[in-house]
Specification:
heterodimer, A: about 475 residues, Rossmann fold, 2 domains, B: about 700 residues, ABC transporter involved in vitamin B12 uptake, BtuC, 3 domains, two-stranded antiparallel ribbon, 31 helices, 4 strands
């Protein structure tokens, strides 16, 4: 046995020395010999030299179009026969949709709601005559079942029968391959690491910055007159843990301006709160906490709210919910969340007078679709795709769609559903030290409150914005984008 | 100060009581099932979930009253499931080892919820909380001490847990049926000799334990905001510590163990955060122990509590009269059959190779590569389980160590990923050897649980360290990993070249594993499997052999994990290496064949290729006249069926403990051997006759 071990050690040593003389492949993004890679990275100019009007949504933006009529300035009817463009025939433009249906540990509606949003937007566009003489259709739908995102992405690449991919899941392991294959991928952009630096990939609000302290949480505290906060995150999730630290940093940063402070950071909570949160709530009561900044899922938030009720302090402590913009979930909860804040990732549904919301409601209701976050994300993803397609012109292909989006859509607002996104810069994550190079022009957030199992507006306009570069405290400016 | 401490302490005890009761209920369930069937029933959570979901569906969808919903879910469905499991599976397993039963229970824990959801058309919906068995159970509170109130649901849980402990204790101590149940677990053959109908007693035991699981499920469900099966599995794993306190045989200790776990966690969460504000050296303990406390407690109980080491698995005293397992089919093959098998292998793999390297598209190349790499990882199970007879449920953690090492070395030092893979495998081997030290003295089902506790500890604590999981780097760009370059060969340039590398690595590891099996280490491990005492009497050191087995197994898993990270260009820990994934791996490998390289290879192929080839109906499109467009309407088969079929595979393990692959090989070999040896005999006789005639 000893001699065998010696032999094994010698073999390993030889192999190690051999390997040491070798290196790593510089081509991290190749997928296969047969796949062409068409990554359209925008030029990165000096942000200081950028056109000062770049952030102006009125400048050369496809959003200029009337959402009811399409953009009359752009020719969207010209038919040009196309050869070799995947998913495109003389009659149709087919797309793939990849999302999570089975095995969702949150029990929320993801793939089906997302798909409804895409189909509703396609139905709207088809009612306008389609695009370049073709109907927009959903070709293949893939359920990644939580663990097969990468495999299904490869199936999309291999099938080569759809033009672009839409994705909404809790995982995103296929983004690397899709991006490397040059397939434009529009997605629910909650996974910053998987979107970061991938120029064919379009998260719905640009690449998030996980460690950039924002002003939304301090503002919510001041709005409520709260002074003492705790910040919560799950220990097992680096995103959640970092988010908890970031919220705490933000509150401390504006501590003097707003008279607020962080009493404690709990960034190591166990996922699911299986043991409840009773001891922590007791400590909050002792610390005089009146605000909870959270980076937990909606089920975790409900556990906290119920514990606050049990310990008799529900009325004294306001919860800030990052992930609870779910109409059905909140309706089931009744008055449990009364007075709590939720930040939606788009112009909230409650701004019913907003033309973009009206258009959404009209077409989603025709599909019998729900008023759900994922439906709106699907709608927005589809909108960016169609606008890019139209802007690419009748001789479009994947590359031209990406190219035109990344170069011309420098203040894209989804017709007012979000703050302006600059796709020439926002494929990469901003950082706490530099929010300008890759960040949004302004720091904006939405805010709604929960009352009696429904959401109600807090401000007259859907968006609250602050200057990005100057981090000193100022009151937000209410805005409506169009 | 002291008064405040006392009040905080008492409040923490009260706050730990509701979760403690949940753990106690599950711990009691573990003990009940083990005492009455000899099964460490990891499927307890699945059974509890089914009753809870049935109760929920009857109450909310069908608008039934509490009593009829309770009768249906707990007193009809639950025992029905128990009786079915006993009749179809566990009746054949009475004399099997506790480890074998554990493997099947793992399979059932995945299959049962999926089957129920398919048959009952049940779909979890976020925010639709289950209601309990008492009216207004979640909204009416009682505060007996004026410090911390309990809901009606929680009081019902406490009352049922205590009543169950008393009633079940009485059943076992005071009734003939209880004694018979324990007797059937100890030795069904001896009890039958005594005139006790073992089958009927066993069925009764399963009906009772399943009913208890159902009741526990209905009671626990209101604590969850969304009724999802994975939450029950998580609770079951946390509650293992309670079962360990009860050593799987003591109901009162399991009850106390569960309650103590709840209290301990509440006390920990009450005091440690405060103390760590004053004493900063406590901060790392607080941060890292909070999410992993149940697993640390479990591991500590298993390793440091002498009573666990002394406890032995329930085993039939008459098992000694059973014949030893037969040799591997390959060892008894006729030389001609061996030649034919090898020739077929060459043709088959040449064809597969031709398809993979010339015909397959990016998807199939990737799937094949993944299958080969997983087969490499599964060879680690071949070593630790197939050769050493130990159940390790932390192979995923070992594989993750390999993957993370490659990521870290490439990201920090731009090191060659191949070299990093070797370093990762060596680190995994070191961790494996270190892990084996504290668990040397425990065996059987307890070793499996200890490794599971380690896997969850790795999952909850280690992965989040920046020097493991990447920290801020991972936040920005994930855990991306480059492909290797070896001299002029750039394995990043094409997926096919990486497939070739994966095959080479697999072959090297497979040859090493076969050498290990045939060599001194393999023989040592076989001797230990046969009889540890006898092996020791001839000078074999069980401790040394186990350490080597763990280290080699972890090395292989680490190497495979590194290869997987390179293939996917990302570690993808959450998808590849979680404890649940590793449990899946183990069941698959032992169900197919834990002792052979072929078993690992086929498990790798099954894990990766079964869904795309079979469930998606792709195999039909390889036939003439069938295309994707005219596939039968039931394709693709829903993913839940994969879990059901996985459970069926595990059930097959009950019938064929040597594994389905080895069973098939034996059957095929036996028939052909008979034919070939008969022909040999005929020829020999003919030759002898001719020789006789010549003389």
């Amino acid at each position: 046995m000893h001699r065998r071990l010696q032999g094994l050690s010698a073999a390993l040593l030889v192999l190690a020395l051999f390997a040491a003389s070798c290196g790593n492949s510089g081509d991290e993004t190749s997928t296969d010999d047969t796949t062409t890679t068409t990554t359209a990275a925008p030029d990165e100019g000096d942000p200081d030299e950028a056109d000062p009007d770049e952030g102006d949504p009125d400048e050369g933006d496809p959003d200029e179009a009337d959402p009811d009529e399409g953009d009359p300035a752009v020719d969207r009817d010209t038919f040009v026969p196309l050869e070799g463009v995947p998913g495109v025939t003389d009659d149709e433009i087919a797309v793939a949709v990849l999302g999570l249906r089975e095995g969702n540990p949150l029990g929320t509606c993801i793939l089906d709601c997302y798909l409804t949003g895409i189909e509703a937007y396609f139905a709207y566009q088809n009612s306008l005559g389609g695009v370049f003489g073709r109907e927009l259709v959903v070709g293949d739908v893939f359920d990644d079942e939580l663990v097969q995102h990468g495999t299904k992405a490869l199936e999309i690449i291999a099938d080569e029968d759809t033009l672009v991919t839409f994705s909404a899941s809790l995982t995103s392991t296929g983004f690397g391959d899709l991006d490397a294959a040059g397939i434009p991928t529009y997605n629910w952009g909650i996974q910053a690491p998987q979107n970061n630096g991938r120029f064919n990939t379009f998260p719905h609000i640009g690449v998030l910055c996980a460690d950039c302290p924002g002003r939304a949480v301090p503002y919510q505290m001041s709005l409520k007159g709260a002074t003492t906060a705790v910040s919560l995150g799950y220990g097992v999730s680096p995103e959640s843990k970092t988010c908890a630290q970031t919220n705490a940093t933000a509150i401390e940063f504006y501590s003097d301006d707003l008279g607020i402070e962080v009493a404690k950071v709990y960034d190591e909570l166990e996922f699911g709160l299986n043991n409840g949160i009773a001891p922590q709530v007791s400590e909050w009561i002792e610390l005089g906490v009146d605000f909870v900044a959270s980076c937990l899922d909606l089920n975790g938030m409900k556990t906290i709210a119920e514990e606050l009720v049990r310990q008799g302090v529900r009325d004294q402590i306001t919860l800030q919910h990052p992930n609870t913009y779910d109409v059905d979930f909140v309706a089931e909860a009744g008055d449990l969340f009364d007075g709590d804040f939720v930040a939606a990732q788009f112009t909230p549904f409650e701004y019913t007078d907003h033309p973009a919301i009206q258009l959404y409601n009209e077409w989603v209701s025709q599909q019998d679709g729900p008023t759900a976050e994922q439906t709106m994300i699907g709608w927005m993803n589809a909108m960016l795709f169609v606008d890019g397609l139209i802007a690419a012109g009748p001789e479009f292909d994947r590359n031209s769609i990406v190219e035109v989006t990344n170069t011309e859509f420098t203040a894209y607002t989804y017709r007012g559903l979000t703050f302006p996104i600059d796709w020439s810069r926002q494929h990469e994550s901003a950082s706490a030290d530099d929010r300008v190079t890759h960040g949004a022009v302004e720091e904006c957030t939405t805010l709604v409150q929960m009352q009696g199992g429904t959401f109600v507006t807090v401000t007259d306009e859907p968006w609250l914005c602050w200057p990005q570069e100057d981090r000193s405290w100022v009151d937000p400016v209410e805005k409506t984008f169009s | 100060m002291l008064a405040s401490f006392g009040e905080d302490f008492f409040r923490a005890l009260l706050q730990g009581t509701p979760p403690g009761t949940v753990y106690a209920l599950i711990g009691l369930g573990f003990v009940l099932t083990y005492k009455t069937s000899g099964v460490f029933n990891l499927a307890f959570g699945a059974q509890a979930y089914i009753s809870a979901a049935m109760f929920f569906k009857a109450r909310q969808d069908w608008e039934w009253g509490i009593v009829p919903a309770l009768i249906l879910s707990v007193f009809v469905l639950a025992p029905l499931i128990g009786l079915t499991l006993e009749r179809l599976i566990f009746r054949n397993l009475r004399t099997a080892s506790a480890v074998s039963k554990l493997v099947i229970a793992i399979g059932l824990s995945v299959a049962l919820p999926a089957l129920f959801e398919l048959l009952a058309n049940y779909k979890p919906v976020a925010g639709r909380p289950p209601t309990g068995i008492v009216p207004d159970g979640g909204s009416v509170f009682y505060d007996p001490f004026g410090i911390y109130p309990f809901s009606r649901d929680e009081l019902a849980q406490i009352i049922v847990a205590v009543a169950a402990m008393l009633l079940l204790g009485a059943l076992f101590r005071l009734t003939a049926a209880g004694l018979a149940m324990r007797g059937v677990v100890e030795s069904p053959r001896m009890t039958e000799l005594a005139g006790i109908p073992a089958d009927r007693i066993s069925a009764l035991a399963w009906a009772i334990s399943s009913m208890f699981a159902g009741m526990a499920g209905v009671l626990i469900a209101p604590r969850l905001n969304t009724l999802i099966s994975t939450d029950f599995l998580t609770l079951v794993i946390i509650a293992m510590a309670a079962a360990a306190v009860g050593r799987l045989v003591s109901l009162p200790r399991a009850l106390v163990g569960g309650m103590a776990l709840g209290w301990f966690i509440a006390l920990f969460n009450t005091f440690l955060p405060r103390w760590s504000d004053d004493y900063t050296w406590l901060k790392p303990f607080q941060e890292n122990l909070t999410p992993s406390l149940p697993f640390v407690v479990l591991f500590g109980i298993l390793v440091f509590w002498p009573a666990i080491r002394r406890s032995i698995d329930a085993a039939d005293p008459l098992a000694g009269v059973d014949p030893p397992p037969p040799a591997l089919a390959s060892a008894t093959r006729h030389p001609l059959l061996t030649l034919q098998t090898r020739a077929f292998g060459v043709v088959f793999f040449s064809f597969i190779g031709w398809v993979a390297f010339t015909q397959a598209d990016v998807r199939w190349v990737s799937l094949l590569t993944q299958a080969v790499i997983l087969a490499t990882i599964y060879l680690s199970i071949t070593v630790i389980t197939g050769f050493a007879g130990q159940i390790s449920l932390c192979q995923g953690a070992f594989a993750a160590i390999g993957g993370f090492t490659v990521f870290q070395m490439a990201d920090r030092y731009e090191m060659s990923v191949l070299l990093a893979a070797l370093i990762g495998a060596l680190i995994a081997a070191l961790v494996g050897a270190l892990l084996s030290l504290p668990v040397l003295r425990i065996g059987g089902v307890w070793l499996a649980i200890a490794t599971l506790a380690f896997a969850f500890f790795f999952d909850a604590v280690m992965v989040k360290f920046s020097w493991v999981g990447g920290g801020s780097t991972a936040l920005l760009t994930g855990t991306r990993v480059p492909r290797p370059v070896l001299g002029p060969l750039d394995f990043g340039a094409s997926d096919r070249s990486f497939l070739a590398l994966a095959i080479v690595v697999f072959v090297i590891v497979a040859v090493g594993v076969i050498q290990l099996r045939e060599g001194t280490i393999g023989r040592t491990l076989r001797a230990l499997r046969g009889s540890e005492v006898a092996a020791e009497s001839i000078g074999i050191s069980p401790a040394r052999a186990r350490i080597i087995a763990f280290a080699v197994s972890a090395f292989i898993a680490g190497l495979g994990g590194a290869m997987l990270a390179m293939q996917q260009k990302d570690v993808n820990y959450g998808q590849n290496f979680t404890p649940f994934a590793a449990m899946f791996w183990l069941v698959l490998v032992v169900s197919l064949s834990a002792r052979t390289v072929e078993g690992a290879a086929q498990a790798g192929a099954a894990f990766v290729l079964f869904a795309p080839v079979i469930l998606d109906g792709t195999f039909l499109t390889w036939l003439p006249f069938i295309t994707e467009d005219n596939l039968p309407g039931f394709f693709p088969i829903p993913g839940k069926w994969r879990f059901v079929l996985f459970g069926l595979t595990a059930i097959q393990f009950a019938r064929h403990p040597e594994g389905m692959v080895e069973f098939g090989k034996r059957r095929a070999t036996r028939k052909r051997n008979e034919r070939y040896y008969a022909r040999d005999a005929e020829r020999a006789a003919q030759a002898a006759a001719e020789a006789g005639m010549a003389t």
